[in-house]
UniProtKB/TrEMBL annotation:
It comes from Seminibacterium arietis. Keywords: Cell membrane, Ion transport, Membrane, Transmembrane, Transmembrane helix, Transport, Zinc, Zinc transport. The gene is znuB. CDD domains: TM_ABC_iron-siderophores_like. Gene3D superfamilies: ABC transporter involved in vitamin B12 uptake, BtuC. InterPro entries: ABC_BtuC-like, ABC_TroCD. The chain crosses the membrane at residues 6-28, 40-73, 85-107, 127-150, 170-201, 213-232, 238-256. PANTHER family: ABC-TRANSPORTER METAL-BINDING PROTEIN, HIGH-AFFINITY ZINC UPTAKE SYSTEM MEMBRANE PROTEIN ZNUB. It is a multi-pass membrane protein. This is High-affinity zinc uptake system membrane protein ZnuB.
Length: 261
């Protein structure tokens, strides 16, 4: 059991290093629907990857990045609200992905693995690829942390200080898209956003500074991964959803903490 679970646990720990800080920005900026849209588009990336005979996970990265750019362009070029555009794109991409997979001839695709993750199939090669992706996102995030935080807390003041708000938003979306793409094998298309949001939302109840919130969120993510994988190992449940349920239980427990006023 250890040999099967350890690579998955390592992958979960690595992903926690980027899902926690990005999740904090998703919570602060109320971007949960954006994350859902990108995760739903990932299934379309899988279908196109199989159709074009390229690695599905590379196709997922390309699809989510293209869609992030497309959504920014739509938001700036139309009069529709962001949540309306995201709702249209999310369900259209998910439906188109399912239809495209169904039209592929002589190809067997395990949709459940892509929708809910195939955590126990992760090997050390996957861990290495995830580590490279995590390093890229983490370095980029550290480089833009201060201006990104500034534009989140006070966009007007950041603009006065000469920070390009649109560029910061674009970079955040790109990093979120990349994180969703490399996390997909871990929890699947339908559960990725929960990996971003739940630990960050839980950590918010125990934090009085942004840095403290990120630190606590990382710890909570690691605990959730450990609980979920342990539960999956002992009771033979789906690993990805078990991790999410572990995270949700921690959030429920946090609700019993009295907030300081």
């Amino acid at each position: 059991m250890f040999d099967i679970l350890f690579p998955s646990w390592l992958a979960g720990i690595l992903l926690s290093l980027i899902t926690a800080p990005l999740g904090a920005f998703v919570v602060w900026r109320k971007m949960a629907y954006f994350g859902d849209t990108l995760s739903h588009s990932a299934l379309l990336g899988v279908a196109l990857g199989i159709f074009l005979e390229i690695n599905p996970y590379l196709a997922i990265i390309l699809m989510t990045l293209i869609l992030a750019v497309f959504m920014i362009w739509l938001e700036n070029s139309t009069q529709f609200s962001a949540d309306t555009l995201l709702g249209i794109i999310a369900h259209s991409c998910l439906s188109l992905g399912v239809i495209t997979v169904g039209l592929l001839q002589n190809v067997r695709v395990d949709l459940m693995a892509y929708l809910f993750g195939d955590l126990l199939a992760i090997n050390y090669n996957d861990v290495l690829l995830i580590a490279i992706g995590v390093a890229i996102v983490l370095i980029a995030l550290l480089c833009i942390w201060k201006p990104l935080l500034f534009t989140t807390v006070s966009p007007e003041l950041a603009q006065v200080e000469g920070i390009n708000i649109s560029r910061m938003k674009f970079l955040l979306m790109i990093l979120t898209a990349l994180t969703i793409a490399i996390s997909m094998k871990f929890v699947g298309a339908l559960l990725i956003t929960s990996l971003l949001i739940i630990p960050a939302a839980t950590a918010r109840r125990f934090s009085d500074t942004p840095e403290k919130m990120v630190f606590i969120s990382v710890l909570l993510s690691i605990i959730s991964v450990s609980i979920g994988l342990s539960f999956s190992g002992f009771y033979d449940t789906a690993a990805g959803p078990s991790v999410v349920i572990g995270s949700a239980c921690l959030f429920i427990l946090s609700l019993f903490k009295k907030q300081n006023h």
